[in-house]
Amino acid sequence: MKPEVMSFFLLLFPIVMYCEDTPATISPAKPKIGDRITLTYNSGSRTATLRNVMEITAEVMLLKGLERGGTLVTVPLKREGSLWSGSFTLTNEGAILLLFRFTSGALKDDNGANVWNAMVYGTDSRPVPNSHLVRSYLLKGEGIMEFKLDKDPMAAEMEAAEERMLYPDNLNVTIYRWTKMINESPDDFTRKKIKQELDSVYALKRNDEDATNSLLYWFEQSGQKERAEEIRTAAVAVNPKGIIAFSTAQDEAYFEQDPTKRIFLIRRLNADFPVKGSDLEVRLNLLLNAHVALGEYDKAALIADSMPTPRGAPYNTVARAMIDRGTDLERAVDYAKTGIAVLRKPGSEGKVPMFTDAQWQQLKIDGLGRLLDTYALGLFKLNRLEEAFAAYQESYRLTGGKYADINQRLIECSARLGRTDYVLEVTREAIRLGQSSDEILGAYKSAYLKTNGSERGLDSSIAGLKAETNERELEGLMKERINKTAYEFTLKSLNGTMVKLSNLKGKVVVLDFWATWCGPCVTSFPYIQRAYDNYKSNDKVVFFAVNTYEHQWGREREAIVKKFINDNKYTFPVLFDEGIAVKYEVEAIPTTVVIDRAGKIQFRKVGSEGEEIIRRLSAQIDLLLNNEFYVK
């Protein structure tokens, strides 16, 4: 062998060894439905994190089609030396992608939050349709529970291109591309281009009802609402029990806001298109909430009793509404008690397929804590204070003191019973954990005075507790920093003015991405309003609710957004997104982005958190207002 060739191999060898030094393998490497799948974990690998453990379990998330959920399969592994292995048969028809990691008690090896994965193959030795496409979505940051891949936009596009090459007629690939186009450039030019392509695609797919149903949304998005309605009406007339008829009836029932009309529509939907399992539970919960809105608690409770799988949450919904409205408290307490009994029942009955047993039990514990809080509130209002105190204590213990509203009610009940020592204990812990409020501070001061006979040392005690909180929060915030230059934008506001980001330099900018159809967005808005009110007089802080991913566009979009804001009496400024959501890596809404005074994105948070939004934003904003943050 020539010296230069030998040198090349010497350089290459350690790289190959490093790349192959993975603790996880799957066999066969190209699994098919019906195969016996073997997963192996090498605890002796240099990159293994599970070492010197007594047991290891493989957790496999089976993804089916383009559905956002999955089915979790747990496989106990047996040990031979440093190798652990276990098998299962892939029987899930429709499975297209396997995500897997390894656990040992509370320890886990998920390849650094980049789980191992394998596509499912067909009998033709090709990955089954949509497998590359689903992997593309995962590479864009759309994880399933804790099963995630490293975000890699370029790799995501390559996966989509591979899907297109293997299955050029796959409509999902076309829809993937249209979605990318309209998210990046939601303008008339983009809609015109989609409209042109849509005509050709529909000509090929018009006899495929499932495909046509997917295309109806795009007719509407490209400004062809009348045509979409014509196609929909004709399809329902031809096949009143078909996919389009089902989808139309379901959308009509689910999006109806009037509770009386919703009840009628859901009952008709159930009669015309009966479903089972989790789909039925969704409908029953909508029905239950409609009856609660109308004050028809008996009917709502009967629905809670009729759930396919007994759940605690429906009873909590009914009981809480009655207690908050002061309606028949004795009966409300009984409903809460029924829900508590359901959640105390051992086992994993009704477990959602994507959860592990441990995760499911934790969800039940948290749900039980919230339901005990409802039960205790009812007892408190009935002046059954000792019973309420016992229920509040258990609720506080189960929820770990993480809910400020539960803490506050426990403190109030304890004070009424004269349990000053307990008030002092709970308020001190709430302040220490950053769950404080004016009411909790007031209760702490009162209990401190009763215990010590004076306020001597009170201020230093509070300062010490807050210092501990601030130090912990600051450490957490600094770890969360993104520190990435914010994308420049010029967007139209609800009042018609144009807002340019670079003109806001020197200010902390809060962007909350939302849409009128987004339930969690709507739920979070009262708290966004309160956060805005806290800083509206500070000329160094600006808030914008950025309307994005709206189903309407142009003047119709503006009218819908304006009506929503006015009807709810929100006063924070609103901007209309024109493609910046993609630039700001908004993968789901609501998403809140906080930009510092130097024009850099520092924080991004997805989802609705209730009152926690106010505390989190305040901590982030106050940090970014501090000049010391910008000292290098």
The major sheet is characterized as: 6 strands, mixed
Which strands sit side by side, in order, in the main sheet? 10-17-16-13-14-15
What amount of the residues lies in strands?
Answer: 5-15%
Please tally the helical runs, counting DSSP H or I stretches of 4 or more residues: 23
Question: Which CATH top level class of the largest domain fits?
Answer: Mainly Alpha
Low-confidence stretches: 1-20
As for the CATH topology of the largest domain, it is Serine Threonine Protein Phosphatase 5, Tetratricopeptide repeat
By helix and strand content, what is the structural category? Answer: alpha+beta
**Overall pLDDT:** 88
Helix content: 40-55%
- Categorize the overall geometry: globular
From the N-terminal CA to the C-terminal CA, the straight-line distance is 54 Å
The figure for the number of domains is 4
Work out the radius of gyration.
28 Å
Instruction: Find the count of extended strands (DSSP E, 2+ residues).
Output: 17
Summarize the helices and strands and which ones pair or pack.
Layout lengths: L2 H18 L3 E4 L8 E7 L14 E8 L6 E6 L1 E3 L2 E7 L5 E10 L2 E3 L6 E4 L11 H9 L13 H14 L4 H14 L3 H18 L3 H13 L3 H14 L4 H13 L3 H14 L4 H17 L3 H9 L7 H12 L4 H16 L12 H25 L3 H15 L4 H13 L3 H13 L5 H15 L5 H23 L3 E2 L4 E3 L5 E3 L7 E7 L4 H17 L5 E7 L6 H14 L6 E3 L3 H4 L7 E5 L4 E7 L5 H14 L7
Parallel strand pairs: 13-14, 14-15
Antiparallel strand pairs: 1-2, 2-6, 3-4, 3-7, 5-6, 7-8, 7-9, 10-17, 11-12, 13-16, 16-17
